[in-house]
Amino acid sequence: MSLKIPKCFPKMKPNSKSKLLLIAFGIALLLLPFITDALLGRGWVRIVDFAMLYIMLALGLNIVVGYAGLLDLGYIAFFAVGAYCYALTNSPHLAQAFPVVFHLGVHLPFWIVLPMAALIAGGFGVLLGAPTLRLRGDYLAIVTLGFGEIIRIFLNNLDAPINLTNGPQGISFIDPISVMGVSLNKTQHFLGIAFPSVHLYFYLFLAFTALVIFVSQRLERSRIGRAWMAIREDEVAASAMGINTRNLKLLAFAMGAMFGGASGALFAGFQGFVSPESFSLTESIMVLCMVVLGGMGNIAGVVLGGVLLALLPEVLRNIVVPLQQSLFGRTLIDPNSLRMLLFGSALIVMMLYRPAGLLPSRVRRRELGGDEPAAEESVYDATH
Amino acid sequence: MPHTDDALLHASHIGKKFGGLSALDDVSLHILRGEIYGLIGPNGAGKTTLFNVLTGLYQPSAGGFRFNGMHYQSGKPHLLAQAGIARTFQNIRLFANLTALENVMIGRHVRTRAGVFGALLRDRATRREEHAIAARARELLRYVGIEKPAQTLAKHLSYGEQRRLEIARALATEPLLLALDEPAAGMNASETGSLKTLLKAIRDQGITVLLIEHDVKLIMGLCDRVAVLDYGKKIAEGIPEQIRKDPAVIAAYLGGGSD
């Protein structure tokens, strides 16, 4: 499935050269955890794993913001819903909080929890979408922001009167993900090669990222995707063309939320611990920035944005402190504040010089005269 | 009035108020199948308001209309598009950042059915439908004469091309009634001429046309029947020759009123 990733680069034509490139790219991806492990250490494989989660989140948000044009500032709430779904159904918490009902504890298998988390998050997506159908732009942003905060505050406070979420302490001792009886939490051996836990998670996340990319790409080039883009471009004209804007906006919210929920479940299993502070407004903004920085509406751009923004803080942490130590003998600037500084200036520079993102969507690139119409047509035909 | 039962659209006593302002007052009219029906009137007469009521964008404050045998009062544009009313906009409202072809393909939305699962699985039926959508869209672009810039973004088309693209997009919904809001606005004489030819061709296909226009010459030369609005009221209706001589119409346009 990982081999399908470069399909989202619209310039690629299915000739032998690009096929080779594709295979090389796929192999590189498969070897990535081992290479990272060898060059940078195991901690970095874990960072890459987190980056994959962010990519999934960003791709989910891209459906809402990039395709349907609905500015959502509370997207991380769906991630939280998914994470808590997994956490509650795979930890001793419920057994401790409600010993009478769940005296044996709840431990649902991964393949049941994952779709469940996605569906519940999708339900929350509709819940958010329904009252905001008439809102656009800034107003929608404010309401979604509020929604995100409401979810976080609920998670924070639902430890009383009944202890559902364990409040700010969060839920710990979450079962690791196990796929077909193989626990991803300990080193496994296949064909004589040792796969440490972080590597196993990497492959799981890679598969899901590929799936998310596949789904996004199929949706983008479909009747549904076109209707979303019509709503993004002009809602009145879209409805005059017979598009049921209400249903399609709800669908966009639900689809985006489902991606968020699924990655939330993966996050909970991977991390083994969830608490409300992982789902703050900053996280929502971070994911939105990945989408905007990379290129709204373009899958490759969003992936790039996710990679860059997920890795940037780690790179800084590992470079800035040692650099300052060696230059000045002590740490003058905290890497965390430097991160925000760099981040802010990067956004300003982007808005000035590449307002459509690092890899603008197909359409916006063509606007700058990049693609030949003929090449564009062949892509259309190739995908049909 | 002959054959009102045969009318494709029958509006009765439509009123529309914006706050205290009465934009439409007791307007009744009927549009017969297969005709080009013109709607004229001075600025602010309520032409576009009536248009927006008939295409579902506005909810009328009073009255309602029958279209193709069904009664409508609700402000649900997509249901009317489904029923067979397609429109263009006075200030062009294309999907600016999509290509001309995609714009027309979106017009096919209402007559196609692939959903999320179709999109994901891309089964045979969906693939066939997508092919049909693209083929029909190209055909329509050719029909309105903008085949060449099919892959150009809508916003980069020339003004005349944008007007034509809007018509192509509206035709893609397979309308029974094509409602055009000032399609010739801003066009030069030769563009207006070819627009006239296009509209006649559309009518000859059996599509009824409702036309708002400022260009009285175009209306008179093209329409089978004309209604005149002034201050939200219908002051005249009939064949162009009658309208031209109608004293109320002349007064409305020249401002030589009795009041």
Estimated helix fraction of chain A: 55-70%
Q: What share of the residues of chain B does DSSP label as strand, in percent?
A: 15-25%
| Strand-residue proportion of chain A | under 5%
Mean pLDDT over the residues of chain B = 90
* Structure summary, number of beta strands of chain A: 4
Distance between the termini of chain B: 30 Å
| Assembly of the depicted chains | heterodimer
What does this structure look like?
The complex is a heterodimer of chains A (384) and B (259). Chain A is an all-alpha fold and 384 residues long. Chain A has helices at 16-40, 42-67, 76-89, 93-97, 110-129, 137-157, 197-220, 223-233, 235-240, 245-271, 281-294, 299-328, 335-353, 362-367, 373-383, and strands spanning 178-179, 182-183, 188-190, 193-195. In chain A, helix 3 packs antiparallel against helix 5, helix 3 (76-89) packs parallel to helix 6 and helix 3 (76-89) packs across helix 10 (245-271). The radius of gyration of chain A is 21 Å and the shape is globular. Chain B is α/β, with parallel strands linked by helices and 259 residues long. Chain B contains 10 helices and 10 strands. In chain B, the strands form 2 sheets. In chain B, strands 6-7-8-3-9-10 form a 6-stranded mixed sheet, with helices on both faces. In chain B, strands 2-1-4-5 form a 4-stranded antiparallel sheet, covered by helices on one side. In chain B, strand 9 and strand 10 (233-238) form a beta hairpin. In chain B, helix 5 (124-144) packs across helix 6. Chain B starts with 6 loop residues before the first strand and ends in a 5-residue tail after the last helix. The interface between A and B is large, with 34 and 49 residues.
